[in-house]
């Protein structure tokens, strides 16, 4: 009798827990009232919007929750709302073809089932994901048209930067080299013989080297003494060009090096440095212009910030 009562009690308890969980989810789903966190020019940002944005950032920009704060994301969302309003004023529209192209490129290599699982894990529907991508593209395009398109870098600015930062434009001696790296000296000796017999260095590197640059024929690129381990540079900068070295033992294995070209160090001429200086100055000026532009948008906006807590 006691055993029967115990079984009945367990069953009743299980049913109770099930119903409790079911109705809890039902009530949450049907009666939960989203909180208004911010009102920006009449546009409400809800706690569910904030949660969705954080989930989107996890997928789209590979940002973990631990690396972002709700306050930072909410502040970014306020900026986005104001920029989207500015996009409407400037009549900027992102065509569907551009959105679809972005989506196709972003998910390239993923099977449809994998995409569904990733979005499901972040509790995002395909429509929510697409809408957030569309907003992100619209924000980026508006910044380009309203800010970046108006940034100019004059030739006099480039020249002034060059002469006032001249110490930045000195280059050390450098060379263009390749390597083959194997595990044993016997392997290295065998490859050295193959080179002596006329086999191509690049082909042997692709076939036998275990270095990370093997698929590029062992190409180390242009390097200076400060770019490589001392065990490498000690050999490379003493070698004759276009003559493979004898096997060199390092902590990584046994290497055969080949120096293809050399360049003496010295001052980088303005003509060569010009493009890089112009790009750097453009980035600096764009960043400054964007900050001023965004601050003006926020100053002119009616922003009311409520309690930011409560988002789980």
Topology of this structure?
Elements: H1 2-31, E1 36-40, E2 43-46, H2 47-60, H3 70-89, H4 96-106, H5 112-121, H6 126-146, H7 155-164, E3 170-171, E4 174-182, H8 185-196, H9 201-208, E5 219-224, H10 230-236, E6 248-250, E7 253-263, E8 266-267, H11 270-300, E9 303-305
Antiparallel strand pairs: 1-2, 1-9, 3-8, 4-5, 4-7, 6-7
Helix pairs in contact: 2-6, 3-6, 7-11
List low-pLDDT spans: 1-30, 308-312
Secondary-structure class: alpha+beta
Q: How would a crystallographer describe the biggest sheet?
A: 4 strands, antiparallel
* Helical content (DSSP H or I, runs of 4+): 55-70%
Q: Measured on Cα atoms, how large is the radius of gyration?
A: 31 Å
Shape: extended
Return the CATH architecture of the largest domain.
Orthogonal Bundle
Number of domains: 2
CATH class of the largest domain: Mainly Alpha
What is the CATH H-level superfamily of the largest domain? Porin chaperone SurA, peptide-binding domain
What value does the average pLDDT take?
Answer: 85
CATH topology of the largest domain, anyone?
Answer: Triger factor/SurA peptide-binding fold
């Amino acid at each position: 009798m006691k055993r029967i009562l115990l079984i009945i009690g367990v069953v009743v308890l299980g049913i109770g827990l099930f119903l409790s969980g079911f109705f809890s989810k039902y009530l949450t789903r049907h009666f939960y009232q989203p909180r208004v966190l911010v009102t920006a020019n009449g546009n409400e940002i809800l706690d569910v919007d904030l949660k969705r944005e954080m989930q989107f950032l996890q997928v789209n920009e590979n940002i973990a929750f631990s690396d972002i704060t709700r306050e930072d994301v909410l502040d970014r969302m306020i900026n986005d709302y104001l920029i989207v309003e500015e996009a409407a004023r400037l009549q900027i529209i992102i065509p569907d073809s551009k959105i679809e192209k972005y989506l196709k490129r972003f998910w390239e290599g993923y099977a449809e089932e994998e995409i569904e699982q990733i979005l499901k894990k972040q509790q995002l529907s395909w429509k929510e994901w697409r809408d957030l991508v569309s907003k992100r593209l619209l924000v980026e395009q508006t910044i380009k048209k309203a800010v970046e398109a108006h940034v100019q870098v004059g030739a006099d600015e480039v020249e002034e930067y060059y002469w006032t930062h001249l110490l930045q434009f000195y280059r050390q001696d450098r060379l263009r080299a390749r390597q083959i790296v194997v595990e044993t000296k016997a392997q290295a000796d065998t490859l050295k013989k193959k080179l002596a017999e006329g086999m191509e260095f690049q082909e042997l590197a692709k076939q036998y080297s275990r270095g990370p640059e093997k698929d590029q024929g062992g190409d180390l690129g242009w390097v200076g003494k400060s770019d490589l381990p001392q065990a490498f540079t000690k050999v490379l900068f003493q070698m004759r060009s276009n003559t493979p070295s004898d096997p060199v033992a390092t902590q990584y294995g046994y290497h055969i090096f080949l120096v293809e070209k050399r360049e003496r160090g010295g001052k980088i001429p303005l003509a060569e440095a010009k493009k890089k200086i112009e790009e750097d100055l453009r980035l600096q000026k764009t960043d400054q212009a964007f900050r001023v532009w965004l601050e003006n948008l926020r100053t002119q906006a009616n922003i009311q910030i409520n309690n930011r807590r409560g988002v789980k």
